[in-house]
Every structure is written in structure tokens, then in C-alpha cells.
Specification:
- This protein has 2 domains: 150 residues, Ribosomal Protein S5, domain 2 (2-Layer Sandwich); 133 residues, Alpha-Beta Plaits, CATH 3.30.70.
- Helices cover 44% and strands 23% of the residues.
- Helix 2 crosses helix 3, helix 2 packs across helix 4 and helix 5 packs across helix 6.
- It binds (R)-mevalonate (MEV).
Length: 296
């Protein structure tokens, strides 16, 4: 019996989420603490894949051929909190595409994986910018502008990242549609917010490359009200942002779709364990606390 496996990593959008759908730049980094593995067994006789997993299998089969998805067993082992804004859906589509291609003896390049993952993401949430897929495929820090070739983002050593899950899930499709409505209601205001976000993303890029935690924190703090202004923050997210700042972070914001989900904060890498301990003592769920992987 053929058994094939594929893996992919979750991601954290450091800045630019939502506005990236409308052309602003965004920066994302992989989250090695949160990975996902898909295992496919042919002719396993188990329950047929359901829902989004079945849909992704159908898309992979369309691309690379292979057995009827109803005739295989697909097991997903995920260390990425679901619907939390950490890229679990893109990681699932990439890991499944890798496993499926492996099962049928193909070795797809990144471009093929992107196409298959994006087709799955379109089913899941309508109009994905592609940033989640990019990190899941390459596992690298990226500066992303929709419709342009993604550029690697330089990251200096020593930058700490804390990720807190508020435990409230949210649907990407719902949040993206909510932002679209805000934009339609007041296009001029949205354009101003988009321009401010683009400036924040530039500051984030410079700070990551320079290893300047103070500047990075200031930029994260500046991003949070811009996201709140398009309706994707919640009282729970605001409480988490306040808690992590009070615990000693240099700055914090929600990450990903919002509406619940996760908050990121930065500090010096060596201070991350202490901050995480303080937050856990207060009852917060710390998903990751460590350093952002350095990148050239
Ligand atoms: C979701 O992880 C990020 C959003 O910006 C949507 C997208 O870029 O496709 C909210």
C-alpha cells in the first residue's frame, strides 16, 4: 500500500494583512513552531475524506492524476491552531499537494505547488492574496505584493516573536468580506488607511533587516489601529495586545484575518521566554515564543 506524506509550515503576517488584498505590501515569516503534516494512504478502506480536505484532494488529482479521492484515507496532523490566522488552511493545501504529488510519483516545483494551493484557497476564502501560500510553499520570510514576484525579506538575528491565541476562531472569508464592505462604504478613507499601512510595512521591513526591535515594536503598535479601523479587531484581541505590551513587549498587533485568532508581539529574542512565562501565568495561551529565523 502506498503511503505518502507532505509537510508545510504555518505563518505569521508581521504587517500588511487585509490591505495586501488591495495592493499594499505585506511581510510574513514562517512559524516553525507550528507545522502540519498530511498522510495519504491508498486503498486504506477508511472513511472517505470530507469537506475542504476532499476539495483539495480533488484539485490535486485534477493536476497530477491519481486515484479517486474517495478511495484514499487522508490523515491531517496539525500543530497549527485552526482558524487562528496562522495559515493553517494554506499549510493544509500545500502539505496535501506535496503528499498527493509524492503518491503519484511527481516532484512538483514551487510554481506548481503555488497554483494548486491557491486553487484550494480560493475555495476556502474567495480572494486570497497568496501571501499564506507563499510562506507555506517556501518556508521563508517574504515581502509580498499581490501580482508581483515575492521578494525574500531579510531578518537579522536576535528578534523575538511572541504569538498568543485568544482561542476565538474566525473565518477568513467572513473577515475579508467585512473589510470589502468597509472599503465600499468609504473608499477614500480606505485608501488613506492603505497608504498608512504601506508606510508601516516599509518600517517593519527595515526594522527586521536591521534587527531593530524597538522600531519593529513601534511599527506593530502603529499597525493595530489601522486594522481596528477596518473592523477586524475585537475586544478580546485588544485585551491580548494590552496584556503582551504590559508584560514587556516592544509592540503588538493582531495577525492574519482577525475577528478573533492571534496576536503577535516583538521583544528581544533573549527576553521571549520570560515574557511567555508572565503571559502564561496570567492565563494566556502562548503558541510560540522565540526568535524569528534569521534570513539573508
Ligand atoms: C489571511 O491570512 C491574510 C489576509 O490578508 C487574506 C489574504 O491575504 O488572502 C486576511
Amino acid at each position: 500500500m502506498t503511503v505518502a506524506r507532505g509537510r508545510a509550515t504555518g505563518k505569521v503576517i508581521v504587517a500588511g494583512e487585509h490591505f495586501v488584498v488591495y495592493g499594499a505590501p505585506a511581510i510574513a515569516v514562517p512559524l516553525p513552531a507550528a507545522t502540519l503534516e498530511v498522510e495519504i494512504r491508498e486503498a486504506a478502506g477508511g472513511p472517505a475524506p470530507q469537506g475542504h480536505v476532499a476539495e483539495c484532494a480533488r484539485i490535486a488529482r485534477e493536476r497530477w492524476g491519481g486515484p479517486d479521492p474517495a478511495a484514499v484515507s487522508i490523515v491531517v496532523r496539525s500543530g497549527i491552531p485552526v482558524a487562528a490566522g496562522l495559515g493553517s488552511s494554506a499549510a493544509l493545501s500545500v502539505a496535501l499537494a506535496r503528499a498527493w504529488a509524492g503518491m503519484v510519483g511527481r516532484a512538483p516545483d514551487d510554481a506548481e505547488l503555488r497554483e494548486v494551493s491557491l486553487a484550494c484557497e480560493r475555495v476556502a476564502h474567495g480572494a486570497p492574496s497568496g501571501i499564506d501560500t507563499e510562506v507555506a510553499v517556501t518556508g521563508r520570510a517574504v515581502r509580498f505584493v499581490r501580482g508581483e514576484s515575492p521578494r525574500p525579506q531579510a531578518v537579522a538575528p536576535g528578534i523575538g516573536l511572541i504569538v498568543i491565541d485568544t482561542g476565538t476562531p474566525a473565518s477568513t472569508r467572513t473577515m475579508v468580506e467585512a473589510v470589502a464592505r468597509r472599503r465600499t462604504e468609504d473608499p477614500a478613507r480606505f485608501e488613506r488607511l492603505l497608504a498608512e499601512t504601506s508606510a508601516v510595512v516599509a518600517a517593519v521591513g527595515d526594522a527586521l533587516a536591521a534587527g531593530d526591535v524597538t522600531r519593529l515594536g513601534t511599527a506593530l503598535d502603529a499597525a493595530q489601529p489601522l486594522l481596528a479601523a477596518v473592523g477586524v479587531s475585537t475586544p478580546g484581541l485588544e485585551r491580548a495586545v494590552a496584556a503582551v505590551r504590559a508584560a514587556g513587549a516592544a509592540g503588538a498587533k493582531l495577525t492574519g484575518k482577525g475577528g478573533g485568532g492571534t496576536v503577535i508581539a516583538t521583544c528581544r529574542e533573549r527576553d521571549a521566554p520570560l515574557l511567555a512565562e508572565r503571559l502564561r501565568d496570567e492565563g494566556w495561551t502562548v503558541v510560540a515564543a522565540g526568535g524569528i529565523a534569521p534570513a539573508a
